[in-house]
Protein: Diaminobutyrate--2-oxoglutarate transaminase
Amino acid sequence: AGDGILRRQRLRESAARTYARSFPIVPVRANGMTVEGADGRRYLDCLSGAGTLALGHNHPVVLEAIRRTLDSGAPLHLLDLATAEKDDFTTALLESLPREFADQARVHFCGPAGTDAVEAALKLMQTATGRRGALAFTGAYHGMTAGALAVTGNVGIKSPLPGGGEVTRLPYPYAYRCPFGSGERGARLGVAYAERLLDDPLGGVLPPAAMILEVVQGEGGVVPAPDDWLREMRRITAERGIPLIVDEVQTGVGRTGAMWAVEHSGIVPDAMVLSKAIGGSLPLAVVVYRAQYDSWRPGAHTGTFRGNTLAMAAGAATLRFVAASGLAERAALLGARISERLRRLQGRLPVIGDVRGRGLMLGLELVDPSRAVDSCGAHPADPRLAVRVRAACLRRGLIVELGGRHGAVLRLLPPLTITDEQVEAVLDRLADAIEAAAS
Ligand code: PMP
Structure:
């Protein structure tokens, strides 16, 4: 049956299929970190729906919340009408957010994907500031949408100014290959560059509607920004009246070792974009923003799917369970332990150029040590090796996805509920796969 499904999918689905191409398996059952294929093989899932499954697959708390809601007879789809489920989710969400932010926050429910929330946040800040354009970073990933609003005719719901404006790209502090040199000095020079550029009357940058950033870049190759750099970005934007949007689509809900990744640096954003894990494995996305930016008239930003009842129930249960069981703290602990083990492995396997990340959002950048180092002292990335390692992992029953420039970064995003034994199994299989693929 599995082979038939794979064959039909290849024939009938778009050539843009990605994960299905990298992992030619047909999952039939899943529980926690384990996925079982139609052929009976079992895999440890270090992808977790691209970071969505904070509690792993089919966690009893999530299933119970979904069952309870189904049994209650609550309508499953209601546009954005007031429901007890929405009320409860909003309470759980606001309770989970840093106090200084949540106390003056408003929540906007958007279309179900992270990209919808990013669109909403950018448009909101355009409305609030009357400006266009945004500051964004090299290596950033915020979604896939482009143009739906542009081809919509109703000018009333377009932002005050048509079009999104220009995007000014600033360097993200990617220490391993930082354009300004590695380490803290590189990050500092990046801050100076940003500041000079914004203040230079000949710099070509019009005052933007917002700055948007990830605290740890995920798709960009698991690149954590230093806390000082984040505080500097907060200062730079605050001093110039530029709203700061933090995209916590991937970093949220305990992933980085804090409930929200902004907590590490203590920065208070003007808006947070949230999706993935907040829906407890069902689609849900919101923008949370400071009340002072609540500039939309009723109907200024709408959509058919704005808060699915089941996703809200599953999401509220997830947020509460992560907080009550200290899973963020555990993620910090396990992340440190796994990183240390990976660094030891790096000592033995020179193809591991860099080990980085935060909490249970970890990355290994694979390089070709036989080739000369670049101006940052790093060997060139080795994407072909990364593809071989991913396949070798799968053969050993481990699902690991790639990311970063040229796809040479192995990304580890296990559920926060990963057990100690599973940590050992992941490390063993990973080491074995890298060694086999590199030899
Ligand atoms: N922002 C970040 C940081 C993401 O990692 C992603 C998805 N990987 C998105 C936005 C887009 O989310 P979605 O795929 O749900 O549109």
